Task: inverse folding
């Protein structure tokens, strides 16, 4: 690591992280009418589409929606590998996630879902995007322009809106105060310097959050690290690497206890003792992970706003 760390305040990504409590409150309030209507649809199945950070938000959404609403819910892989319109049906609610609303593969999959008779809702930061125009309705992140390449406030808005769909706006809004406290506290990971984790693990709805935080370490800090479910880590990944495990969990977890028998585990504390809801706490843990990735990037003298080889809109098949 470089001995000279750049100030957070000189980075765009830190400014955008700091906007997250306001963005969350705005997104939840503005989208409540459509969320109410979606809760009355009673679909036979809910399918989500997304890549990258939007894919991680989709996985979080699938976990909380199925657990809380009891509706079969899954994420279409890659995002619709090989299945085309056959992956969707007339009884489906399809949630298509793309922060820009312009990811070609997500847009194509959403159009195929519409053609198959599914009810398609876009979840994007651009209500005038092609994805929003192709869908029957659109949930907006209301995040304003996100300039830094790594998604922070748009990811959080997507995940929070999916939690609000599953559990109500009141539950999702419980994350606001702990998130604001986390940004004020600026956790630095471990004493003695920023954390360079050997793996990021999460339990329950925090498992996809672990994957997102691992992506932030890669994008922001240039540190490639695996992000997996804590139970899955015990089935092989625990043997890889030699750094401490960054554990994202809001509640005691047997799998984390088992991992501690093999590896050093760092588990960040939740500000204000958390939100009182494990799924809302997962959103708080996402923000803590973002900050920890930024701390590592700045200690390394890396520009966190413009990672090499990446752009804001990613073209993929």
Result:
């Amino acid at each position: 690591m470089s001995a000279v760390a750049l100030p957070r305040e000189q980075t765009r990504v830190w400014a955008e992280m700091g906007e997250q409590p306001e963005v969350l409150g705005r997104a939840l309030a503005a989208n409540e009418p459509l969320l109410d209507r979606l809760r009355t649809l009673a679909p036979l199945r809910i399918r989500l589409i997304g890549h990258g950070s939007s894919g991680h938000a989709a996985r979080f959404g699938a976990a909380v929606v199925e657990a809380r609403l009891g509706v079969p819910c899954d994420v279409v892989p890659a995002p619709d590998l090989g299945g085309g319109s056959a992956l969707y049906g007339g009884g489906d609610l399809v949630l298509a996630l793309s922060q820009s609303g312009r990811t070609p593969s997500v847009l194509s999959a959403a159009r195929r879902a519409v053609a198959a008779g599914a009810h398609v809702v876009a979840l994007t930061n651009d209500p005038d995007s092609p994805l929003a125009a192709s869908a029957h309705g659109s949930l907006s992140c209301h995040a304003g322009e996100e300039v830094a390449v790594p998604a922070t406030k748009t990811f959080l808005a997507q995940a929070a809106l999916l939690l609000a769909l599953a559990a109500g706006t009141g539950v999702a809004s419980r994350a606001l105060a702990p998130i604001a406290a986390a940004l004020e506290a600026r956790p630095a990971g471990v004493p003695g310097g920023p954390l360079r984790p050997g793996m990021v693990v999460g339990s329950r709805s925090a498992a996809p959050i672990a994957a997102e935080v691992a992506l932030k370490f890669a994008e922001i800090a240039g540190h490639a690290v695996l992000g997996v479910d804590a139970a899955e880590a015990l089935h092989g990944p625990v043997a890889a690497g030699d750094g401490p495990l960054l554990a994202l969990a809001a509640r005691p977890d047997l799998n984390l206890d088992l991992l501690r028998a093999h590896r050093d585990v760092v588990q960040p504390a939740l500000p204000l003792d958390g939100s009182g809801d494990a799924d809302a706490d997962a959103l708080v843990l996402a923000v803590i992970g973002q900050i920890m990735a930024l701390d590592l990037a700045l200690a390394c003298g890396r520009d966190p706003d413009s990672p090499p080889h990446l752009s804001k809109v990613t073209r993929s098949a």
